[in-house]
# Entry
Amino acid sequence: MNIFTMLTTNTYNLPDVRELENWALSYFPEFQEARPAYSPVVVPYTGTTATTGFDVNRIRADFPILNTKLTSGKPLIWLDNGATTQKPRQVIERVSRYYENENSNVHRGAHELAARSTDAYEAARQTTANFLGTPSKENIVFVRGTTEGINLVAQSYVKPLLHPGDEIILTLLEHHANIVPWQMLAQETGAVIKVAPVDDSGQIILSEYTRLFGPRTKFASVTHVSNALGTITPIHELVQIAHRHGVRILVDGAQSVAHIPINVTELDADFFVFSGHKIFAPTGIGVVYGKAEALEKALPYQGGGNMIKDVTFERTVYHSAPNKFEAGTGSIADAVGLSAALDYVTKIGLPNISAYEHELLDYAMRELSRINGLRFIGTAKEKTSALSFVLDGYSEEHVAKSLSECGIAVRAGHHCAQPILRRFGVEATVRPSLAFYNTVGEIDTLVSAVRELAK
# Structure
């Protein structure tokens, strides 16, 4: 029995197995032919990781969908977390409990269910404020998601500031949701968009970002984590540079909020936006955090019920923030679900989540990088979650379909981030993306399936 047979017929829980294999090859290269092919079979993972003490099996037990068997008979491996995350039982049950016991429109109702619903909705606002480290729940505006949040800030706060020739600063890493609203605004007002470039690893070049600021700069809007590359931007420096030039800044936290501890007060962000479904909450709910003075200055984004104090046909008096930005009936049950998701993440601890995911990401990149013909798109030193790659000889769609046949769900395409992909000479990538319920065994299955395809 050679070393590779031993390694693949015994139970090991740690990524160090691959290191042992490579050590053996360095001393006994003739064993290369004896190295068995990895077939796409789920490798069980038990216990905790070596360095973080994070019990992933206990976490996975909270997510019913992770027990799903697909029509192919394969177990589901969910590596499409950058698109949306799965929901723990605690969130599912909380939303059900809302509809069973509290369902009513909020505010102004004299009956008991209206009071219950209002209490749950405003408690969700407070939970969100606590999660983000905001001074008050009045800093929190509920929207449908990050896209609506960015559009709200663009139309409500930034648009009244702009004159022809004024400038808005973005970066090359942005999702389309942080590009298109600003383009629409520029076309409407005559403003100009300036874009900070990135280096060959996919990290923002700070000196070039700084150089963009000038006397006509009115606003900056930047991502915290690139959805396409996984790059973690130097967000504290980006905020500080903007403020040194007297410019307010929005931070797109859609891809960071589930992976990195965030305190908007310490960050000193003027606006911070994210989507609930990226952090294990329902779809249809998102958050805009805004500094009190910025929200006060901003104009209402939409008109209708709930956001008014008084209406006549001659004039309307609006509520103060956050209500003046929440016209109509909000996504009440989804906000309650968001509250449950944030409570769930808080109980586990984002520092613990971040440490575990960092181990998993490092392991995945190391193993995938050993596959001939695979090239990563985005290799910044500071990185989280996303593992974008291309594979020689195969379209991204073909790779994703092949992985799907093995039960592995990944995203393939331009990820609504065409400018940054074109910076690296590609139109699309395959993007596995991680969450805290993924395992080393699932990564091994991914690597095995990609390696088989590469052959």
